[in-house]
Write a structure and sequence with these properties.
Strand order of the largest sheet of chain A: 2-1-3-4-5-6-7-8-9
CATH class of chain A: Alpha Beta
Number of helices of chain A: 12
Oligomer: homotrimer
Largest sheet of chain A: 9 strands, mixed
Helix content of chain A: 40-55%
Chain lengths: 269, 269, 269
């Protein structure tokens, strides 16, 4: 399938249908993720209270779980929301912020992955690889930004272990369902100097999956390429992080189909 | 009374007196509401802990309650803070974010309205109309953006039921105390593509009410017209959401009396 | 020691080493503090859950405690994190937001100061002076923005009482370790119209202390001068708060050594 035309199709559907994206996310990025989702045409809602998450997820097009400032009662809400999503066929996108850095974060991600079905797991290499089996870890994981054939093998193993799509952000992004592998070369290093850009990509991936039906590998790849391309467009306006992040929201809102067909950089393998 | 000159009077008082606005609000908009209040010259404080809300409300000029990311212990704090405000004659502005979407949100708003006295209830049509009596609901409420005579009747009924001002944001805003009706035609659709613009208007309404004394219907109308006009000014700078929201803060800070007298669009009925 | 060259040395070290700054901070500024830290080259992490704070602090270069939207369980986490930092020689920077305004806030700060060792206490005059001994308070503290010799004496007393550096933001900033006194004249009044600028300075002070080793008085002074100078640079771009805060992030990221050597205004006494 042609990712360029699919990306255009999906972003047009988001702008037209304005899917509701239910976010149980961290305090740092609630505002920025909401603005990113609004800019692409989606409808964000943030709701974390155990008493309402099931109801909220039920009316959503996709669910975002993000453990960035996690605490125990929020984990319970995430699991309840994810179970609701699972029972209704609503895609669930998990961002394992800081997995590997503390025991709480690693265990929270492991518990969510064990008790619920995640559609897409999106993070950076060190977060994702921290979830590899201990056998893999013993082999040693180099979480540098460049993708090696080792990285691809481990990403595929994790995808197969958890039966989900693994999407790793880096200099080149790596997306796999355990079988096919796609790489995205869009994006810009300045994104790492603005908080919430990774979490924002998780939210955008959710919006793309909300309108995509079954083709989540392609939808995730489209989200990554679209998002990275908007960053490239923004950096033309400014290579300073304050102005860049303003221009990035503008680009997410106004990027045109022609830019998407011309500048998206996706390859297989 | 002339709303234009009253708006100028109130914004000048806010800039001069810098009223303290106590916000018990949602996680998504804490930062943006604080910046909006600072831009117009008010002093925001966010405090939600049961142990301090009464003390904080006591020294405030107005209290904002916003249920956007509500959880049970925050509701208790909201009710304690509102009771303190009631006992001291401090205006309380309630934003029923998401009322009607989940049972928790609807019940939270109903409980606050039952146990405390709200001065102004500000939301969009679907949120406000979700609070109508079941008799009204049975008649059917069309929460489209255009104001019909049905809308006006229901808004008046809700205002009379809860003895508060009802302020509904829409393409044209509708403000009523159950008797008089005022409409504001300022504003811009791009506001719906930036998170927290509605919640920000609730906070601005609180600041206008803090300096207004008894005339809360006119103060609320002034706040809506002022806020909408600043959005119109901002969209001249940019019609993309990132740049727009920056220009909007700039306009809230720097808009001049002449713009207010010339461009405010308020009418009766 | 020459503060100008030391400031350049420290900011270069931050950009090179990217120290991890662990923030247990308030909901309003989590996003802005993260962006401010990223702009200067540091690596922010926000984590407040009792189950992970010790682990997170252990791997950090400095710890920020900020009581802006405090609640009791967060205070426990702050104290645990600070004890961990103390045991490992990691600097702890405390921002007593709203101390003096409510009993909860004053008692929280007093408890943290009693149970842990704080390296730098940064706030405005009214917050800091609210922590003076009752004997001092009886003498009367005028918390105006201008520094009097009375202010200097009280600041020194507080520094000696708590064996920490006292850093007071104002029209001219006052920094003392109880013995030496340094003043910084950089900054701009527009900073008071943007939320989180004070909290952002606390975070920047933490980053400077993280790379400074023992010289925390000088590092704190450098942080204040650097930060104030970036605000002066930003206000050249815009004197409206929305655009100013964007330009401020840009300046924090891109300010050059030559600006620092030329425009920093620090004096002794």
């Amino acid at each position: 399938m042609e990712i360029k035309s699919y990306t255009i199709e999906l972003i047009n559907m988001i702008r037209e249908k304005s899917p509701l994206i239910h976010n149980i996310t961290n305090f740092v990025v609630m505002n920025s993720s909401a603005n990113i989702l609004l800019a692409i045409g989606a409808s964000p809602v943030m709701a974390h209270c155990r008493s309402e998450v099931e109801e909220m997820t039920s009316i959503a097009g996709a669910l975002v779980l993000n453990i960035g400032t996690v605490q125990e009662d929020w984990t319970e809400s995430m699991i309840c929301a994810a179970k609701t999503a699972n029972s209704k066929g609503i895609p669930v996108i998990l961002d394992p912020v800081g997995a590997g850095a503390t025991k709480l974060r690693s265990e929270t991600v492991e518990r969510i992955l064990k008790e619920t079905k995640i559609s897409v797991l999106r993070g950076n290499a060190s977060e994702i690889f921290s979830l590899a089996s201990s056998e893999v870890k013993t082999r040693g994981v180099d979480s540098s930004l460049l993708i090696t054939s080792d990285h691809i093998d481990i990403a595929k193993e994790i995808a197969n272990d958890f039966k989900c799509i693994i999407a790793i952000s880096g200099e080149e992004d790596l997306i796999t369902d355990g079988n096919q592998v796609l790489r995205v070369a869009n994006g810009h290093p300045l994104m790492t100097r603005v908080t919430g850009t990774g979490c924002g990509l998780t939210a955008v991936t959710a919006a793309f999956c909300a309108v995509a039906g079954e083709k989540l590998l392609e939808a995730t790849t489209s989200a990554f390429a679209f998002y990275g391309l908007c960053a490239e467009k923004a950096v033309i306006t400014s290579d300073n992080p304050g102005s860049f992040s303003v221009a990035f929201l503008d680009a997410l809102y106004s990027i045109e189909n022609e830019d998407i067909s011309t500048f998206i950089k996706v390859r297989k393998g």
